[in-house]
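Please produce the structure of this protein holding pyridoxal-5'-phosphate.
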Amino acid sequence: MPAEAAMKPESHRTTPDSLDPQDWQDLRNQGHRMLDDMIDYLSSIRGRPVWQPIPDAVRSTFQVGLPYEPGSLDDAHRRFMQDILPYAVGNSHPGFMGWVHGGGNPVGMLAEMLAAGLNANLGGRNQIPVEVERQVVQWVREILGFSEEASGLFVTGTSMANLIALWVARVAMLGTAVRKEGIAPNGGKLVAYTSAGAHGCIAQAMDLAGLGTAALRLIPMNAAFEIDMALLEAAIADDRAAGLQPFFVAATAGSVDVGAIDPLSAIADLAVREQIWFHVDGAYGALGMLAPEIAPRLAGMERANSVALDFHKWGQVPYDAGFIMVRDGALHHATFSSPVSYLRRESRGMAGGSPWPCDFGPDLSRGFRALKAWFTLQVYGADKLGQVISHTCALAQYMKQRIETSAQLELLAPVSLNIVCFRHRGKSGMDGAKLDRFNADLAVAIQESGKAAPSTTLINGQLAIRAAIVNHRTESAEVDALIDSALELGETLSV
Ligand SMILES: Cc1ncc(COP(=O)(O)O)c(C=O)c1O
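Below is the modeled complex.
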């Protein structure tokens, strides 16, 4: 062995293979087959069951040891088609009405492939992908009626967006010193308010922000499932009298259980009077601004200090695409920016373009979520998304009528937007826990039939079958499938 070769470290003597293919044409052919399969999947989705139970044998194929040796892409693709694709939860299917899941869209799917190919890290730096995110931020300002001072950021979902809002509000109340000292010196008295119908992630955000869920007042709702303003005001007065410091109220625009919209203008007025942060959880409802008949019902949201929303719900962008907008962008920046030498900014070169997205949230490495939202808005246009949103609400009204004209079914909550809560009256003499069990079993039977997919919730302590119509593919045929299945399976269900 020559002397200089012997001195080189081992890894320098052999060039390891990269992860790129030996034959790009093979990869191209395989990639085209994969794309064709997904286009086939979406174009023929109506012919599939919404959801089907997962066989144990399939589940166990995902409980094996780490593969040390290479496998073929063709095999992995075959596994996907055979064992993964058929057993997803089915929210792309027009019959899916469980929880609040968006249906995605084909253009967003293609954009995801482009984003993955580019492999951009949207933490920051001087790159056009960050400008694409800024473009969507600008569009969200336009949708919500916010000014240039407002900042925006893509995040995983509204759970994270609500948490970010709470972190910013905490800095607004306690000053940036809280970032160093923690909340202990002054934060022990902070209290927050939301409706009893608010999503559980608001309480979770209180927990994660170190403020504690005990400092969150869950204000009862009125008959329309909106926060009771008199009780909210009374709770704030009581807390002040007890020496506590009210600092944050989270209104909901489109509640998770029934689709109620809290009185946003009245809450905005109250927040000004009380000098507290006004946040709107608009997970799905905020994009109702795109629908001409819903936008007026969201009046007051434009006065919020912060709004959380999800493009992956009514915005139809593939998961995940949550978003936070903060009126005072400088405060938002002051909540998260952390100068460190290895993220030093310059006025030119790749480290230009400050502030960066990482200065507005906890994530440094971030994917290119903005691209699928940009494509979706660019290709379909905001008006089309608004029409989809309106259509889902019209379908909810149709479902309400079907329930009201079916003697065996009863509505359990007003239908304010796109969510319908109902139950089967069950067999004669059935009530209380037995009727709840019957309806829970009925919801499962409908899911297992593959014809429709509702979820369940509790409305005034009664178990409700809940249909949230979010998907742009849903039509009256799917509403009929759900109601017909509830009636038919309700007849045959053994109790
Ligand atoms: C009103 C409301 N807030 C928050 C969330 C949580 O959103 P995400 O699942 O995107 O975190 C949801 C989810 O359905 C919701 O409906």
